[in-house]
Queue: 2 jobs
Job 1
Amino acid sequence: MPRLVDETKLIRIKDAAIELIVSNGYGGASISSIAKKAEVAEGYLYRYYNSKQDLIEDLLFTRLKVLIEKLEHLIEICDTVSEIIERLFIRFFDLAKKNPEHIKFIHVLMHDYNFQVEDRQRKTIKSLCSKVLLKGKETKEICPKKTEEEIYLIAVTYPLEFINMRMKNFFNKNSCTKTDISRLTNFCINTLNQS
């Protein structure tokens, strides 16, 4: 007979992992510290995940999947890259407002050399950046010399850095406004259009 899954324990494990990654980085969040914070035995955690890497990949994939699906949808329905980027930024800001720990989690993992995004996710992200690049070349919003890497840096990394600075009150402004989104969109499009 299969074992029953205690969803509350799994949620506690996932929440504990996110919290510890945000506060201590990938290397500073061990299986034992995650289990302790979640108030479960390490063995319980290993029932569902073979390693810390598996757990963190699952958490990251779940968070990125929402953004990837949003971007796929935007590529299909939007006529311009400007519209895609603006609506993606709105999604980033909404996520930061509703689940700030999730944005922090993504940000920490993006900058932690001890963690690598799995190949499947990396290929999906590159493919989406290729689609944005192709649309931008068709609409003449993106310079033909730009690359997928530049799309990612400008349309994903830059807004996440911006949000992170706001969350840390770096310039004493915590909230993000519609004006911020408009300015960020214009900055990104102008940057991608320059040769």
Job 2
Amino acid sequence: MAYILCIETSTTVCSVALTRDGEVVAARQENEGNSHANRLTILTEELFRDSSVPIEMSDIDAVAVSSGPGSYTGLRIGVSTTKGICFALGKPLIAIPSLSVLALPVVQNLSTLDENRDAWFCPMIDARRMEVYAAMFDSKMEQQKETSADIIDNESYADILKERKVFFFGNGAAKCRETLTHPNALFPEDDGPLARNMAQPAYDAWNKKQFEDVAYFEPFYLKDFIATIPKKKIL
């Protein structure tokens, strides 16, 4: 039996989940924007305090973290917190790509329909302006397009959309609705990347002993961090 603490902070949503053998035991989430630094440890404490399973944090077998791409600050907070727990408790670290965390529940829900058997699924995380972090998966969650930072225009993914339906979702997809107007471009609802959706991938990684080096692991930022100056300071 494996208890795994899952942490997801790649977007504005901060979420944690306690899982057992690929099943969710308890979960917490908040969408308060830039509050990850203040809320992540509190949500984790609440997770164990209110869990129906009598377990202490020291009893977990591993910690899984959403590894990016996504918000630079969010990823940094999530990974640094994860590494701190792993160091303190001597537990292994599991990394799950953020876009696969976002894609998994959508693929599971929509791929069961016969008409979607050949469709691809494109999770998108907002990367400012008309740029998104994106990848594509088929109905078996096999990645068909490598993770990249894409600037969206009227011709984006045109060659793929000629061949098949593509479901676009995530907080990056919302700003693409008016640009990606091909009939094969579909926009289902989603809940964003959540820690609870890491349960099965984290357990699979645990069984395969796919662990990261706690000392040297870094998030997959994809792009360099660019600091911005608030407008009121410029003025």
